[in-house]
Design goal:
Layout lengths: L4 H10 L22 H24 L8 H28 L11 H19 L2 H26 L6 H25 L7
């Protein structure tokens, strides 16, 4: 679904290394105001989503997996788009004093989220062929839908033009991705 900690373990086990692109400037201006608490909670979630999609794309398109051509194109495009979005978000966050490090909650919900991510990662690790493709697409459907809802809930409170442009671009990519995933899942007779 929308959580991917076990994906990191999957990637380590598979020997994949997907590096996210980071946009940096020679001189980063000091932030002029303290980070907004609501954005401080949302932005790491968005960054984690981009990073995890980039890692999954690397794993899915590695020599360890054979994908049907349309699914491979989706995975390749997903990796490219989300690495770019992560780079944009990292550049903005650095310039505005936001920490994008993701931390799980230390309560039962945090432990449950980690457990769910591990189960999903294990499922993808041991899936083969069509099962892997179907399960990856179902997980991505849920993730894209979650990210889209998170962006929609965040946008009204954002006034910074660069952050707003990033969120609008991310929203467009997630909407297009959902349409692609729906079309690809019809091959597996799956309807959301």
């Amino acid at each position: 679904m929308r959580y991917w900690l076990p994906l990191a373990a999957v990637l380590l086990l598979a020997g994949c290394q997907g590096a996210a692109t980071t946009l940096t400037a020679d001189v980063v201006p000091a932030p002029t105001t303290a980070p907004d608490a609501a954005l401080s909670a949302v932005l790491p979630e968005l960054a984690k989503g981009h990073s995890d999609k980039g890692k999954l794309a690397t794993y899915a398109t590695s020599l360890l997996r054979h994908l049907d051509a349309p699914v491979e194109k989706f995975a390749t495009d997903m990796g490219t788009e989300h690495r770019r979005l992560l780079g944009e978000l990292q550049g903005w966050a650095k310039a505005h004093g936001y920490d994008l490090a993701f931390h799980y909650a230390t309560d039962a919900t945090g432990r449950a989220r980690q457990s769910q991510e591990k189960e999903q990662g294990d499922q993808l690790l041991f899936d083969g062929g069509a099962d892997f493709q179907r399960d990856m697409l179902v997980l991505m459907y849920n993730d894209y839908d979650w990210q889209l809802n998170l962006i929609d809930a965040t946008l009204p409170a954002v006034h910074d033009p660069a952050l707003k442009a990033y969120l609008e671009d991310s929203k467009k990519i997630h909407k297009a991705g959902l349409a692609q995933i729906r079309a690809l899942l019809t091959h597996y007779h799956w309807k959301p």
